[in-house]
Amino acid sequence: MTTRRHFLKAGTAAAATGIVFCGCGLLHGAHAQQPARQKLPVMVNGKRVKTIDVHAHCHFREAGALLGAEGEKIQITPINGAAETYIDITQRLAAMDAQAVDMEILSINPFWYGRDRDLAAQIVKIQNEKLAEFCASKPDRFAAFASLTLQAPALAVQELETAVKKQGLKGAAIGGSVSGVDFSDPKFHPVWAKAEELAVPLFIHPQGMPELNKRLSGNGWLGNTIGNPLDTTIALSHLIFEGTLDRFPGLKVIAAHGGGYLPSYAERSDHACMVGPKGCNPDVKLKKAPTEYLKQIYFDSLVFSPEAIRHLAAQVGAGQIVLGSDYPYPWQLNPVDHIFASTSLGDDQKADILGRTAAKLFNLGT
């Protein structure tokens, strides 16, 4: 396994946008171990399916440059897939082809929430402009979530409207909270109202649980292994229990990493207020059982195995699952294969997860 960095000359389209992709040296080796793999074009029951990966990352040099040397550390972290390279468009397309992925919905994990409002706004402006430019250069292979200065909700509303109406972006990628403030806080309501009005999805990608760093230290990279799914679990639970999803019933939320732990133990949520009523606010009267809200949330398929897909589909419905890989980080380099290996799914359900549901969500057509 190599961890050294390779700085490769950018291709024409990539150079024009200043995009940074992180390639993974594990790619070819992992593929070699799995010879019976799906390839493009992907076919389900003899019919072509456009595969759409809703969970794929990138960075931009120009945005990181606003933070100086710190920006370089943020963009090129010591993680397999991130530390290795800047790659050109040809390389990214080759990686997608190898994964049997027709299209990626690109996103940038928010590293600017704790920054000064004006600096964060500059970062977001650059990123959204560059994302729009890059996706326009290859619209058949790329779309993107906008970045938002979510610590300034009024500004985030403007950014989202501009991103969708003028830049052609397909929604927004957000963290699990903003500097410790959960998304159920009323100050974020204008952002969710705008997303609902625009009928675009919000992709919740966790940022970990820094307040638990001491307990998550030690072997196993627990800050990510456990912390990231926990962050998503808490974010979704607050949206449910605080009535946010009742207030914005048309809000489209996509949860990364299969929604964290919530779908695995959802029924506990239905019993909590019966067992411990003092821990629940009597003024918040939910319109349905907590588990029912999972059926209006979308979840990516990054849960690794056919059995995990079976359980997720049983809990939330196969129609609420969309393809996700976390590329270029090598969590699941063959994101299509475990969908095909899921004997619990019918052909239509597989086709929906692979791309048809995402095509509807992002108004991409098929």
Q: Trace the largest sheet across and list its strands.
A: 10-11-12-13-14
Structural class: alpha/beta
CATH fold name: TIM Barrel
How many β-strand runs?
14
Which CATH C-level class is it? Answer: Alpha Beta
* CATH-defined superfamily: Metal-dependent hydrolases
Quote the distance from N terminus to C terminus. Answer: 38 Å
**Judging by the overall fold, what is the CATH architecture?**
Alpha-Beta Barrel
Report the sheet-strand fraction. Answer: 5-15%
Mean pLDDT metric:
89
- What's the number of helices? 16
How is the main sheet built?
5 strands, parallel
In the predicted model, the low-confidence regions spanning at least 5 consecutive residues are 1-17, 21-35, 83-87
Name the shape in a single word. globular
Count up the domains. Answer: 1
Task: Report the order of strands and helices.
Answer: EHEHEEEEHHEHEHEHEHEHHHHEHEHEHH
> Portion of residues in helices?
25-40%
Radius of gyration: 20 Å
Give a structural overview.
The chain is of the alpha/beta class and 366 residues long. The chain has a single domain (6-361), classed as Metal-dependent hydrolases (TIM Barrel), CATH 3.20.20. It has 16 helices and 14 strands. The strands form 5 sheets. The chain has a 5-stranded parallel β-sheet with strand order 10-11-12-13-14. Helix 7 (153-165) runs parallel beside helix 8. 47% of the residues are buried.
Helix and strand topology:
Layout: E1 6-7, H1 12-17, E2 19-20, H2 27-32, E3 42-44, E4 47-49, E5 52-57, E6 59-60, H3 61-65, H4 69-75, E7 85-86, H5 89-98, E8 103-107, H6 117-137, E9 142-144, H7 153-165, E10 172-174, H8 189-198, E11 201-204, H9 213-216, H10 222-225, H11 227-241, H12 244-247, E12 252-255, H13 267-275, E13 297-300, H14 306-316, E14 321-322, H15 337-340, H16 347-361
Parallel strand pairs: 1-7, 5-8, 8-9, 10-11, 11-12, 12-13, 13-14
Antiparallel strand pairs: 2-6, 3-4
